[in-house]
Amino acid sequence: MINDKMYALGSKRSSIREIFEYAKARAQEIGVENVFDFSIGNPSVPAPDQVNESIEKIVRETPSVALHGYTSAQGDKSVRDTIAANYSRRFGAAISGDDLYMTCGAAASLTITLHALHENGDEIIVFAPYFAEYKVFIEGAGAKLVVLPSDEKTMLPDFAALEKAVNVRTKGVLINSPNNPSGVVYDEKTMETLCGILAAKSKEFGKRIFLISDEPYRELVYDTKTVVVSPMRYFDDCIVCYSYSKSLSLPGERIGYIAVNPRMENAKEVYAAVCGAGRSLGFVCAPALFQRVAAACDGLTADLSVYKRNRDLLYNALTEYGFTCIYPDGAFYLFVKAAEKDAKAFCAKAKKYELLFVAGDDFGYPGWVRIAYCVRTEQIERALPLFQKLAQEYGL
Amino acid sequence: MINDKMYALGSKRSSIREIFEYAKARAQEIGVENVFDFSIGNPSVPAPDQVNESIEKIVRETPSVALHGYTSAQGDKSVRDTIAANYSRRFGAAISGDDLYMTCGAAASLTITLHALHENGDEIIVFAPYFAEYKVFIEGAGAKLVVLPSDEKTMLPDFAALEKAVNVRTKGVLINSPNNPSGVVYDEKTMETLCGILAAKSKEFGKRIFLISDEPYRELVYDTKTVVVSPMRYFDDCIVCYSYSKSLSLPGERIGYIAVNPRMENAKEVYAAVCGAGRSLGFVCAPALFQRVAAACDGLTADLSVYKRNRDLLYNALTEYGFTCIYPDGAFYLFVKAAEKDAKAFCAKAKKYELLFVAGDDFGYPGWVRIAYCVRTEQIERALPLFQKLAQEYGL
What pLDDT does residue A304 have? Predict the structure, then answer.
């Protein structure tokens, strides 16, 4: 009567969303200040002032019909030109507005890209730990998800596994740096090794293998000395998926883009397939007002010092309490080894202290948990004694 | 290398979008006042003042993190409750916020609904003329589009054809009243006949057949004495797809909803499948600010008197010039019989006069054209002499 897969996806929410909803309900019961919700990547830092200022300015200055009307399906031309010019300047890869396709955020960027590329029998490779919804998006596009391991010390890709796994059905490798959930940032050497393997394998199998770079956390980097450069510099067959959700703290507004590397072969055809996929999935155009806001605020960020402070606070304390943590260079997640084998059991025990976070199982990495520290610093400060009790309960 | 279907959809834009883009380019060449673009349903009437007022009020009064953060996937609870209460009062079908799923506009409402319902081998019935993108959305969800005729005089469904066409593979009938492109509004008798057939056929084949009611033009009704009621009153297995694009003149902002009739069997399961499909397609949540704007402005409309004036002006003049037109009760389209057999040739001839409209072929109705009159009245006044010349060229 209905689609079983869609029912399963809708009735079993993602664990993240499940805990997020639980936290909201629990806050009603015992007060929001007593629930320590580290489940969801919902930025706690306000959008930069320029976001609301530009909303008000655009609303005041633009005639209603021009402001709220359809834009071209790929996005308003001047918006795309502005963002492309910034991109070229900021990340050292020359692109034009005609290489950009504005989307309703990162999820849309990914589903559109995956549908655009998909052919029967395709495989898409990701490295665990990986953002849980990748599985939903990849399988939703009809492709097979292939999960490869990372090194447990560095959380960087296991390249030997990659060399073995790539085959004639490999359509692409989907990477995410800074990484959700590990917080790890790929350095230049990692990118070069990865792209070197893809280039060699592409030649070996006589077919193109795309690098799909999911970059919602691109601006959220705290220590790395390396200047963030475009992955397009490392690899021609690269498609960048971006969202302003995290950099501008507006995940609810659904605004982002896809950038198709103009240096790839048949770039115009790939771009056309992106347009076609957006159309087929029902996106029509990205939200018009926020297209303009994105152009006005492109390159700005929310106050990242809060996340850096949170990271330092949480990483240092949890390490001190005896937890094993991956030191996160970017994003706003701390990846922590569960204090017992079953990460879900560990999460359940934490829940007794009103500490809510997500088991690594859904990120393809059992035995670990993800703690989203994009919360108010005060919330972390008040949670630390509870983390300490949790550590003590485990005798760490 | 890429998906052929997506490439085809992206490289061959919809005729509507094609002409819309041509019109924009042509306006650059000869001035916007000399191009008479009747191609796209982009409202010409400003959004009601309350839209921008509520944007400014919401932005001023809501803390950034709450305002721009993720809402629940199905939409903010208070937004859904408000809209559901209005719906129940306005359209005589009691629904709650938990029956509503907020979407990124009408196209998203449809693709999500179609994916939620889809099982292998499904057929979805539409009546020609039908909105051209239905084909894209239905086939994108994996179903087969079945096109049935309408009566050429009334443009109402051919019910004898429906009785013959429904079979064990029929998953649903997708209707659109007020209709794009014909402007026809289904009266009570039409709805009762349609739903009677669906109920009987559902019984005959021992399976449910859904009525999917696509209602972006619900508020755009000019003459009909009938109070607009919910199709849920006629049929339990009914899903309403709505968008604020036309009623509030904000098609670029992408905001609408799906309402699952709570009186249908397994309504909660169907709703869950809707949630799952939204997730799979990458929608995450509808744009947060505009969810709140929709709740604040639900039930308001742009100044519809402009469309009524446009309709009267255009219908009366074109009829007088000798064109055969369907009298449109609603929406903002005039459906006109082409003055030669090939509607595309007719459009090409009109283009010489800078009159731009869309051939009925893409609406499954060759030999007719759609003229979108959601333009400034002055534009119609200035176009009328050109329409008259066109009529004269054909010796009407």
Answer: 94
Last residue of a domain, one of B277, B297, B317: B297
Evaluate if residue B228 carries a pLDDT over 90: no
The candidate with the shortest Cα–Cα distance to B259, out of B369, B97, B125, B373, is: B97
Q: What is the pTM of this model?
A: 0.96
Query: What pLDDT shows up at residue A339?
Result: 97
- The mean pLDDT of A352-373, rounded to a whole number, is 96
Considering the domain architecture, whether residues B311 and B272 belong to the same structural domain is answered as no
- pLDDT value of position A224: 63
Q: Which helix (H) or strand (E) covers residue A293, if one does? A: helix A288-297
CB-nearest partner of A280 from B21, B46, B136: B136
Nearest to B140 among A1, A269, A281 (CB): A281
Residue of B nearest to A253 (CA): B287
Q: Would you call B364 an interface residue with chain A, using a CB distance cutoff of 8 Å?
A: no
Q: Does A44 touch chain B (CB under 8 A)?
A: yes
Domain match, A242 and A100 both: yes
Residues A172 and A308 in one domain: no
Q: In this structure, are A310 and A249 located in the same domain?
A: no
> Chain B contacts of A45, Cβ < 8 Å?
65
**Residue B120 predicted with pLDDT over 90:** yes
A111 vs B254, B272, B281: nearest CB:
B281
Question: Residue A369's domain is classified under what CATH number?
Answer: 3.90.1150.10
| Residue in B7, B46, B273 nearest the CB of A2 | B273
Alpha-carbon span B112 to B99, nearest angstrom: 15
Does B10 reach chain A within 8 Å, measured CB to CB?
Answer: yes
Return the residue of A nearest to B272 by Cα: A10
Q: Tell me how close the Cα of B6 comes to any Cα of chain A, in angstroms.
A: 4
Q: Same domain, yes or no, for A153 and A228?
A: yes
Q: Residue A388 is part of which domain span?
A: 4-48+302-393
CATH number, domain at A69? 3.40.640.10
How far is Cα B10 from Cα A101, in angstroms, rounded to an integer? Answer: 12
Q: Which residues of B are less than 8 Å from A142 in CB distance?
A: none
**pLDDT above 90 (res B41):** no
Q: Into how many domains does chain B fold?
A: 2
Query: A240: pLDDT confidence band, cut at 50, 70 and 90?
Result: very high
Asked if A85 is an interface residue toward chain B (Cβ–Cβ < 8 A), one would say no
Which one of A10, A52, A137 has the shortest CB-CB distance to B274? A10
Does the pLDDT at position A178 exceed 90?
A: yes
**What 8-state DSSP symbol labels residue A218?**
T
Would you call A281 and B253 a contact, using CB atoms and an 8 Å cutoff?
no
Of the partner residues A117, A280, A287, the one whose CB lies closest to the CB of residue B254 = A287
Quick check: B285 pLDDT over 70? yes
> Which residues are CB-neighbours of A257 under 8 A, at least 6 positions away?
A75, A80, A83, A100, A101, A102, A103, A109, A242, A286, A294
Phi-psi sector, B203: left (phi>0), alpha (psi -120 to 50), beta: alpha
Does B265 lie in the same domain as B149?
yes
Residues B359 and B282 grouped into a single domain: no
Which of A276, A297, A318 represents a domain boundary (last residue)?
A297
CB contact residues (below 8 A), chain B span 214-253, against chain A? 249-253
Instruction: Average the pLDDT over A295-317 and give the result.
Output: 97
Residues of B with Cβ-Cβ distance to A276 under 8 angstroms: 3, 5-11
**Surface of B (130-149) touching A: CB under 8 A:** 133, 136-137, 140
Q: pLDDT-based confidence at A340, cuts 50/70/90?
A: very high
User: In this predicted model, what pLDDT tens digit does every residue of A183-231 receive, in sequence order?
Assistant: 999 999 999 999 999 999 999 999 999 999 999 999 999 986 666 789 9
Shared domain check, A44 and A54: no
Question: Which pLDDT does position B125 carry in this prediction?
Answer: 98
Backbone φ and ψ for B370, nearest 5 degrees, come out as: -110, 125
Tell me which chain A residues have a C-beta less than 8 angstroms from the C-beta of B271: 10
Token pair for residue B57? 């009020």
Give the C-alpha separation, B8 to B2, whole Å. 11
Compare A227 and B295 and report the one with higher pLDDT: B295
Integer Cα distance of B355 and B26 in angstroms: 11
Computed over its alpha carbons, how large is the radius of gyration of chain B? 21
